[in-house]
Amino acid sequence: MMTLVSSLLTLDFELGSVTRVRHLVTESARDAGLEGAALEDFVLAVHEALTNAVRHGLPPRDIALWTESGQLICEVSDRGPGIPAKALDLDYPSTRFDFGGRGLWLMNRLVHRDVRTGPHGTTLRLCVDLP
Description:
- There is one protein chain.
- A hairpin with a 2-residue loop joins strand 2 and strand 3.
- The chain starts with a strand and ends with a strand.
- It has a single domain, classed as 2-Layer Sandwich (Heat Shock Protein 90).
- It is α+β, with helices and mostly antiparallel strands.
- A five-stranded antiparallel sheet has the order 1-2-3-5-4, covered by helices on one side.
């Protein structure tokens, strides 16, 4: 069985480019076939991953977006200290607005999320089925 992979976007980003990257993700996801609430949910999840990488991670920070086997897949990576296990296992959002804690929870509810994290960095993989 052959798996069709189509690369849509690959680049490095920093704080000053988050808005531009979000727009590129929106355009690419729309071109891949997402629309309506599915598009909005995917872009919001990716935006949360981007802002978390800028806020908590270290450079270089990368994003890659592609389609594979009927899914739209986005990976956001950074070289920071990793995500604490307690932050990954929350079944509810943090109640402290000043310290964050909602991004990972929200991503998990909007898309399929996979996390690889450790002392040398984090990669978040966000996936959604294409129509």
